[in-house]
């Protein structure tokens, strides 16, 4: 309401539809939301009711969240790529009565599970295509709901303002379901104050203004989107931009040129992989030019970004590189206007991190979780390091327990897990301290370093430390490796299962005239095995220099015959590895890795895009790796 009054004609949100960017001002957004809220009220939506939001980033879905909150209701975003069974659990557990779905695909999933979710009584859809002949007794067009809202407002002119005036900061703002790496997702209950205070503090820390712009492409069910594309935009008044589809994000990013950007490491890794693939296909002169100026950037770019002193001649060379290489490259990626970029979720490779910073892109790392409304720590400007996740965010306290676990408390700390008092008490104590489940420590600069999940940090049978996530992140620094799962707890040595990156390895195959017809065929190619073997042995060399983890060098590995997939239960919807499920599903492969076998037959059930199930069979090779003498004795 404040923005509608003071920034009436300023763009609040854009959406690309049929190739054209459509804009709504703050004044128009207020009208859209208020009309929708009145429409929901006319359908019986009341304080405490839940509205599920299912679909891609769309203005109307964001408006649905705000409209529900205007009435004292609770939005429950659901991952749009969830299969029906996953969706049924969330809708039933949250006791959702109303659903706002993007299109026919999402409506079909809700109708399929409606018997499992008896509380669902009303479905509203945004895109009407394909829904004309459906039974519309409980199915409603978004436009019709808004039309009813206009009539309701005329008959009850003060109703909505009265409802809004009753809302408090301590009221529940939203339910966000965790990705469920170890079991069923938990519903994280966040209050209005959790979102607003955290959004305001983080925006102030980074100097965000109403002139900033961001691309809203992260899943709406993820807490990151709820802060970066929703909370901060509403607190500060900047414009968010919704891409046409997940397939056009790169193009839409170039067209918008955001000033503020967030992406998980895999996005930055993918961008760098694409850059390197394109350069391998370029002519000799372009390759020389790129390599020469990237060396210039490596030597001076980060210093210039940190405003450290740089020799005049080096500054001149960097300026020339900006004109010939860095500027065009940033423009191609859509990064030419970025002032602040964040990455989080997993560790990002130092080489990847330094590559983007050397181009003059102020990319920083933060550490957070859903239960914190994202921000636990973040890197301040001028204190950006590749191997840390920064200092405690404003008003956040962080401590390390004697067991080495990171705990915190602050304004973003969640209220509870919905209908799960036991899990709440196990995670948050009476003083508001929250257990992260992560092992870490503070370095001499006061920056937090994360080692691994506490539950995943194990020991080899020799007693030496085994930190699987740390090793897996090192493996994923290589563009040829998309996913890695390592094993070693209470074992004599460490082993690994690898997923190749089909884009990177496929490009290599094309350039080297290596024919293949599928992921499975390419993954089994001897030259691919040799490539991955060299990558892993390089990681072993790095681990040999690590006093804590030199004993965790990988001795045997295999390349999986299929990509790990969320639909097959192997990854969460945020692409986190479900280690326990993988170890159970591929127990035969695990046994073979810890034997003298050099191959193993496997038959795996897979889920196709249309929901059908089938099987993939393969004979997988198992390779031994070279390990290296530790430079320092492992403790």
* Weakly predicted, low-confidence segments: none
What is the number of domains?
A: 3
CATH superfamily of the largest domain: ANL, N-terminal domain
What is the CATH topology of the largest domain? Rossmann fold
Structural class: alpha/beta
Q: Kindly state the number of beta strands.
A: 29
CATH architecture of the largest domain: 3-Layer(aba) Sandwich
The fraction of residues in strands falls at 15-25%
What profile does the largest beta sheet have?
5 strands, parallel
- Could you give the distance between the termini? 60 Å
Strand adjacency order, main sheet: 4-3-5-6-7
Instruction: Work out the radius of gyration.
Output: 25 Å
- CATH class of the largest domain reads Alpha Beta
